[in-house]
Amino acid sequence: MVIHDNIFNNMNMLSGEKISAEKNIADMLKLLGHKTRIRIILEIGAEEACVCHLVNTLGERQAYISQQLMVLRDAGILKTRKEGRFVYYSLSSNQLLDLIGLAGKVAGTPVNLLESPYQTSQCLCPKCHSPQK
Q: Angle between the 95-107 and 35-46 helix axes, to the nearest 10 degrees?
């Protein structure tokens, strides 16, 4: 699924037509209705992360993670910061964590059960291999 319009910045207008509040909510829930995107948002919600970090913590291929990051970034959910050859992703709004947490409660699955079984020890980014870690 590719959303070409930033659903945060274009809440009221799309091609000159007014978008209903219901459509905005449906688009947001559709975007978040993907297990890997939820895992990415939860992982990035703790602190910014690079692709290599997400690959190691989520146990998915780099190309797949990058694809999901692009969808989230294009929708305005993520922002980026470049440091050397690494691009770090962070949430545009921490309210998404509240939304996912509430959805987890409604579904009977506390978000803390979604913690990753993978480790960051293989991540080569400076953030994961800083002297503090």
A: 130
Closest CA to 9 of 96, 74, 97, 98: 74
With left for phi above 0 and alpha for psi between -120 and 50, is residue 91 left, alpha or beta? beta
**Residue 30 belongs to a domain with what CATH number?**
1.10.10.10
Q: Which two tokens stand for residue 72?
A: 């989230």
pLDDT at 1: 42
On whether the CB atoms of residues 69 and 40 are closer than 8 A, the answer is: yes
Q: Do residues 24 and 7 make contact, with C-beta atoms less than 8 angstroms apart?
A: yes
In degrees and rounded to multiples of 5, residue 86 shows phi and psi of -105, 140
Where residue 67 falls among pLDDT bands split at 50, 70, 90? very high
CA atoms within 13 A on the CB side of 49: 23
Q: Which residue range is the domain that position 71 belongs to?
A: 20-111
Number of residues that this document lists for the chain: 133
User: Whose CA is closest to 77, among 29, 13, 12?
Assistant: 29
